[in-house]
Amino acid sequence: MIETPGLLPTENLFPIFVDAMFTKNFLLIMFLGLCSYVGLTTNSDTSKGMSMAVTFVMTMSAILTWPIYHYLLSPASIIGKDLTFLRTICFILIIASFVQLVEFIIRRFSPPLYKSLGIYLPLIATNCAVLGVVLMNIQEGYTYGASIIYAFAAGLGYSWVMLATAALREKLIMRNVDLFSGFIGAFFAATMVALIIVSYFSMVKL
Amino acid sequence: MTVDLMSLLPPAIAVLGALGLAMAGMLVWASKAFYVETDPLVDALMELMPGANCGACGYPGCADFAEHVVAGDVTPDACTSCDTETFEMIGELLGMDISAAESMYPVTICQGGTNCKDRYDYIGADTCRAAILLSGTKKACSYGCIGLGDCVRACMFDAIEIADNGLPRIKKYNCKGCGACVTACPQQVLTIAKEHGPVYVVYASHDKGKYVKEICEFGCIGCGICKKKCPEGAIKLVKAVAVIDQEKCNQCGTCIEVCPRNAIVKL
């Protein structure tokens, strides 16, 4: 019999945090959300905006999707039927509507924030990294608290990789070497940053 | 495990339908509750804008420019990217008569290029801005075009290229006159000029007259003959280089004739 995980975290939160930020980084290890990664890291300002937006949306979608899954879709839910095959479409529905709602709200209440963040929000609506986070939450069977921590850490992990790569790419573009321009350069930079964290965490045991 | 499809179908439809309806309802409510009133005129104007977001008008993008036009802060002809037809349509929309701004495009005020000798071989980052950091520039004339193409990279419309003579060449057909290249040039060898209406430009190098004579076929050496001969008194010497006051100039052409260096030209 499947049981619903509790609300308060019972897991050890530190490994979850480090996992999401480094050892199972969404961009570099799981290779999710690569389209925004390749497209926006040419400029550190845009990657900053995108990172903030992604972190926010990831955290909020974890908050929203966990109850939906465990109280509506899971076999242990109040309905009592195994509706887990609906989770992807439900999560996309929820994330997309939430992103749209946030866009309405910041457009109404904070035009400057809308100008700096607004253009990135539609890009996130169906970002696979965001969907990845909420699906991982379910797959790992996290409690509500742990799933929120996990999503926030995944957002932070996304952010630091975005910023590190943007810094690297900005320097490489300055050198004007053909190899480092465009998409090839993006993947080259991604490889280098990925190698750094993979080799570091293979030596440093947590 | 076999899945009984028929028993899953009703709850599946119910759950997904309920979620969909709830989300749709929430969005409908939010779009009303957080509705931001936008001027329909701004939207209509935005349709006509070129959408290049080049920034030549002085606003961050076409949308911002359209807002300020409707607010009356700026006249539509501040846009350099619109063509005459678009201006007519904008004029019709706003009920005003817009005479299209004369098209502007950049001109190179350096005749150096490959004529101007290199002082040393430059190997480094392929930009003018990097090259200029090394004791002036690699060119003999420290005021001339370096020719590494910062202007080419600044151009959003593919309207400028470094020609065989080592100088930027403007493809007027593509040029929108936004002036991005002028801002990008660290040597200020580009300037914005009007398409019609002649402009006199002085090929100016602030190096010493004797040195300019050695290295450049055209450069102004600050002799001041044009200043004496100009009937309008429109020319003055600034840092030993002739500068023409476009307000006073009546385009008589006297200075072009008298200049011993051919430093003044009619464009």
Explained architecture:
The complex is a heterodimer of chains A (206) and B (267). Chain A is mainly α and 206 residues long. Chain A has one domain. In chain A, 72% of the residues lie in helices and 0% in strands. Chain A is built from nine helices and no strands. Chain A has helices at 13-23, 34-40, 44-73, 87-109, 111-117, 121-124, 128-140, 144-175, 182-203. The longest helix of chain A has 32 residues, at 144-175. The mean pLDDT of chain A is 83. Chain B is an alpha+beta fold and 267 residues long. Chain B has three domains: 40-94, 3-methyladenine DNA Glycosylase II, Chain A, domain 3, CATH 1.10.15.40; 102-196, Alpha-Beta Plaits (2-Layer Sandwich), CATH 3.30.70; 197-267, Alpha-Beta Plaits (2-Layer Sandwich). Chain B has ten helices and eight strands. In chain B, the strands form four sheets. Chain B has a two-stranded antiparallel ribbon with strand order 1-4. A two-stranded antiparallel sheet of chain B has the order 2-3. Chain B has a two-stranded antiparallel ribbon with strand order 5-8. The mean pLDDT of chain B is 80. Chain A binds chain B through residues 68, 72-73, 79, 81-83, 86, 89-90, 93-94, 97, 100-101, 104-105, 107-109, 174-176, and chain B through 3, 7-8, 11-12, 15-16, 19-20, 23-24, 26-27, 30-31, 34-36, 125-127.
